[in-house]
Amino acid sequence: MSQVVDQKKCVTCGADFSVFEEDRELLDKMKVYDKYDIPDPIECWDCRQQRRQAQRNERNLYPDECDKCGKNMLSIFSPDKEATVYCPKCWWGGEDDPLDYGREFDFGRPFFDQWKELYHEVPRMSLIVLGEQENSDYAHDAYRLKNCFLTFDGEQSWDCMYGETFYKLKDCMDFLVASQCELCYEVVNCSNCYNSKFCKFCKTCSESAFLYDCVGCKDCFACCNLSQAKFCIFNEQYSEKDYKEKLEEYKIDSYEGLEKFKKEFAEFVVKQPKRAYRGVKNEEVIGDHIDNCKDCYYCFDCAGLRDCRYCTNVVVGANDCMDVDIWGENMNLAYNCECVGAGAQELMCNYYAGRNVGNVYYSAFCWDSSFDLFGCVGLRHKNFCILNKKYSEDEYHELLERIVAHMRETGEWGQFMPAETSWFGYNETVAHEFYPLDRDAVKERGWNWMDIPAREFAKQKYEIPNAISDVPDSIVDEILGCSECGRNYKVTPQELKYYRRFGVPIPRLCYNCRHYVRRRSKNPRRLWQRKCARSRVPVWTSYSPDRMEDVWSPEEYVKEFF
Q1: CA 35/CA 21 separation, integer angstroms
Q2: At residue 178, what are phi and psi to the nearest 5 degrees?
Q3: Dihedral sign computed on CA atoms, order 495, 497, 501, 505
Q4: How far apart are CA 444 and CA 447, in angstroms?
Q5: What kind and span of H or E run contains 353?
Q6: In this structure, are residues 361 and 32 in contact, taking their beta carbons and an 8 Å threshold?
Q7: Do 269 and 226 contact (CB within 8 A), yes or no?
Q8: How far is CA 114 from CA 77, 80, 102, 108, 283, in A?
């Protein structure tokens, strides 16, 4: 742990938090144009992340019509919002010039008020789609997908359904944080797995089910903490013949049998030692679910980072970044951003910016070789713009110096866009998923809330067969009701094909409630200090001290299980 150089109290929630020497070193390295200092954060890590996530609706989709071509489309913006929304094809078509919405900076008003007006006026994409998609109209936050349905925050995958945060998948369904997997069902934080189901935190496993923290296992069932194992059940070794015979005893092809076994396996897992943090090929890191990282602090669900702090879901590499949620890929010097990457350099307080952009600050949806932008929305191939107004290089820098001074006086400099500037109700955003609040608490903070009219859902009349082998093709015509939220859902023909292939029963939850179950199976993005249950050395871990699991240091865990 590095030296604490200041102890602060969060201006939002009142929690105490520390500023470390490395924080200031990285902020100094990120100076805007090597000239303008970035101040210490004034909010704790949770409130900083919550503020960024309050801008992003990831999973709520609405039917709408493109305001450009008039065609029907799906949109992350509900029709009642007074927004100009284009389908991705029209938005990327480039017929409109976002510079037409440019305006002068008013030094008599706070910057965020002016930015919100511009942000709410410029036309926006109905779904965030980068690159060509094929037969993937029901995918948001997507890049180069084929035959994907109701997937979010994913790229370069095909024939996948009902998943979030993924990379290079094929024939997978119901997943959360997965990369380079094929034929996988109900997996969480898995990579390089094949033909496996109900697996969590596994790597390079195949032909298996109900694995937890396993590496390189094949033909294993209901195992935890195994490495390079084969023909094991509940961590016991069997011959191939006995393994197959024993496997017949577990009837997970029926709904009742599956639910009963889930409880049995959970009771087994909780008694097994837990590694303090999950990750491989790391050096000097503190966090959880991080791979191939070096000199990183308080990072979660990341890979390929160097010298980064407080980053989440940056899964394809970044250097010298701090307080970034989502993306990466050859990205450098990004601070306090949401959804940025693909060659992006020197960014601060941006929401969706990428594909070889640089020196972009306080902007949203700016792409494709855009440089030297401040407070802009929807620009591509542009430079030296402020609030979507074009300037000469000298004019740009002269005006920017005055704006930075103005924002220092208003207390806005270095802070991400406030939640009240968001297009979405707090309960529509990712922030509500990680930091749930009720309507009164949201309104008290002055943030937006989406009032969803009460709706009567059709009562399910169809009785779903217990075993998948008894499910007829005609189930695709039935209207089902989620046992958790009551919403209606249907089983598509492609979905039914997967259930039969995986030998699992029809789920009784809608796809959204299944997602929330997966999300709850992950530890919180928070760290505590505990003592290794074996060596008693202090460790940082996402297992809180009040939990019953035994936590082992990485050294003890590797010594025992690898």
Answers
A1: 20
A2: -145, 145
A3: positive
A4: 8
A5: strand 351-354
A6: yes
A7: no
A8: 21, 23, 11, 10, 44
Q: Give DSSP secondary structure letters for 191-237.
A: ES-EEEEEEES-BS-BS-EEEES-BS-EEEEEEES-BS-EEEETTEE
Report how far residue 362's alpha carbon sits from residue 118's, in angstroms, rounded to the nearest whole number.
12
SS3 238: coil
Give me the residue label for tokens 């760290």: 527
Give the N- to C-terminal CA distance of the chain in Å, as an integer. Answer: 27
Residue 484 DSSP code: T
- Tell me the angle at which helices 111-119 and 393-410 cross, rounded to the nearest 10 degrees: 120
Helix (H, G, I), strand (E, B) or coil at 380: strand
290, burial (CB in 10 Å: exposed 0-12, middle 13-18, buried 19+): buried
At residue 491, the pLDDT reads 96
Amino acid at 462: Y
Q: Return d(Cα 342, Cα 280) in angstroms, integer.
A: 24
Cα 352 from Cα 326, distance rounded (Å): 10
Q: Are 342 and 326 in contact (CB under 8 A)?
A: no
CATH number belonging to domain 283-410: 2.150.10
Q: Is residue 413 classed as helix, strand or coil in its secondary structure?
A: coil
Cα separation, 195 vs 369, in Å, equals 40
Contacts 24+ apart (CB under 8 A), 365-371: 365/124, 365/125
C-alpha count within 13 angstroms, C-beta hemisphere, residue 415: 23
Closest CA to 299 of 322, 320, 317: 322
- Cα distances (angstroms) measured from residue 33 to each of 200, 377, 381, 414: 43, 20, 20, 14
Q: What is the mean pLDDT of each run of 10 residues along the chain (562 residues)?
A: 85 94 95 95 96 96 94 94 92 89 97 96 94 91 94 94 95 96 97 97 97 97 97 97 94 94 96 93 93 95 94 92 92 96 93 94 95 97 97 97 97 96 96 96 95 87 95 96 94 95 95 96 94 95 94 93 86
- Side chain identity, residue 339: C
Which positions ≥6 away from 151 have C-beta within 8 Å? 136, 138, 139, 142, 145, 157, 160, 161, 162, 163, 164, 166
**Could you tell me which residues are beta bridge partners of residue 300?**
288, 312
The residues, any chain, with a CB within 8 Å of residue 80's CB and separated by 6 or more, are none
Is residue 90 classed as helix, strand or coil in its secondary structure? Answer: helix
Q: Note if the pTM is more than 0.90.
A: yes
What are the E-state strand segments in 62-167? Answer: 62-65, 72-75, 85-86, 124-125, 129-130, 138-167
| In the chain, where the domains are located | 4-52, 129-275, 283-410
CA distance 304 to 286: 14
Q: Judge whether 77 and 126 are in contact, CB under 8 Å.
A: yes
C-alpha distances out from residue 376 to 74, 136, 410, 476, 486, Å: 25, 29, 19, 46, 42
Burial class from Cβ neighbours inside 10 Å (0-12, 13-18, 19+) for residue 70 reads exposed
